[in-house]
Specification:
Strand order of the largest sheet: 2-3-4-5-6-7-8-9
CATH topology of the largest domain: TIM Barrel
Number of helices: 17
Oligomer: single chain
Radius of gyration: 24 Å
Shape: globular
Distance between the termini: 38 Å
Bound molecules: 3-methyl-2-oxobutanoic acid, zinc ion
CATH architecture of the largest domain: Alpha-Beta Barrel
Amino acid sequence: MSDKIYIFDTTLRDGEQSPGATMNTNEKLRLARQLERLGVDVIEAGFPIASLGDFQAVEKIALNVKGVQIAGLARANPKDIETAWEAIKKAEAPRIHTFIATSPIHMEQKLRMPPEKVLEAAKEAVKLAKKFTSNVQFSAEDAGRSDIDFLCRVTEEVIKAGAITVNIPDTVGYTLPDEFGERIKYLMENVPNIHQAVISVHCHNDLGLAVANSLAAVRNGARQVECTINGIGERAGNASLEEIVMAIRTRADILNCHTDVNTQEIFASSRLVTHITGIIVQPNKAVVGANAFAHEAGIHQDGMLKDKRTYEIMTPESIGATVTPLVLGKHSGSHAFKIRLEELGYHLEQSDIDRVFSKFKELTDKKKEIFEDDLHALVAEEVFRVGEKYRLEFLTVLSGYGLIPTATVVLEIDGEMKQLAGFGSGPIDAVFNTIAKLTTTRAKLLRFAVNAITGGTDAQGEVTVRIEEDGIIVIGQGSDPDIISASAKAYINALNRLDYIKNNPRIKA
Ligand code: KIV
Ligand code: ZN
């Protein structure tokens, strides 16, 4: 039997550190449930000390998501570690993940601590965490640029202190695959107690090498890989989970290892991260991009018709990327609808099902075929966005040749209905101006993008907006067959995210 590679998903923690990717508690819980279906081994649910919102989200995930380890991040100090434990302690299998930087530049300039003090803090942090749980992971931040012999000492000492996983991050995405692989090999050969812990890697993508570096580490003995769905994360992102998992599966002949990920849930997980964060996957992205299985050149199409293996090294089915219409339509009853939702992983309260069902019926009047993605969008709109500061109640727009585009908007703001009419240079401009006045926002619109989430002229439009206020950048997303309504929803979603961040200021890792 080949070795198992543990998949540690950090979409909810490092992924959320992507500019604009803030998620609220309900969104995080929904994503955590999908990660559980995906079959990852560890979900890093957040950084509990960072804000009250982070703490509550981690706690909720720990309470509600079973069958997977739940990790909480903590710097190497007692307050962080105690807070992380408070947030995860009710999980079925909690893990404390504590870290401190070990590179000269981080120790001298950021921590202003000499190496001996850093080593001491690392040991103390692990010892304290061990008082709460045996499942303790230690990370040597910026290990990619750390002195290798100091890194060996830190690794040996934290294992002695009780760490059962030691993570070697390439925090700034600086190393090259051979070099990073050598680093892991050196640790494996020079740390006497290395076999008492699982060696993990956590690679950032600043030079586009995060996946290559992670795989080089696996070839040299790493047995846990930290990664995120769609590769989202701080700056250029983290190693992408789908690429790691599919590389390990497709090249098992060379890598000689396996993961327990249910690859057929990859596409749904990728779509969900896009829905929640509004960060769209580039079409040519490996594994989950829209063109990943498209064959344009005639010679390729000819080959595909003769034998798919000529140009296909993995199938779209293997990642669950098959666009099948729902077997549901205009005449379906609410019971069949509920069962379909459950098949898609939504176990909702009856009142939520009723609300989504009534919107589904409205959609069947507007659209010929309903796809799974449409249903995901409906659930996102109707269930996971409730409880926010701003909610769109009503919208009409008047526009046409010779008319001044005019919008009338009714918003529920903190439970109170407010209405206003306003003008603009086009219909969307009129809607945005009116919403801006109603919410009294100072946020600047940085980007506006429209995408069709399912094919045909009756497709649902998916709008993404990016706004900025006082240096805080957020992304909002909305979908609707009516592109103007989708735009209004996206703008309001962004304003809700901004409001959430302003009320939950985070500290940096
Ligand atoms: O990139 C990094 O070093 C991290 C650590 C906290 C693991 O995210
Ligand atoms: Zn990181």
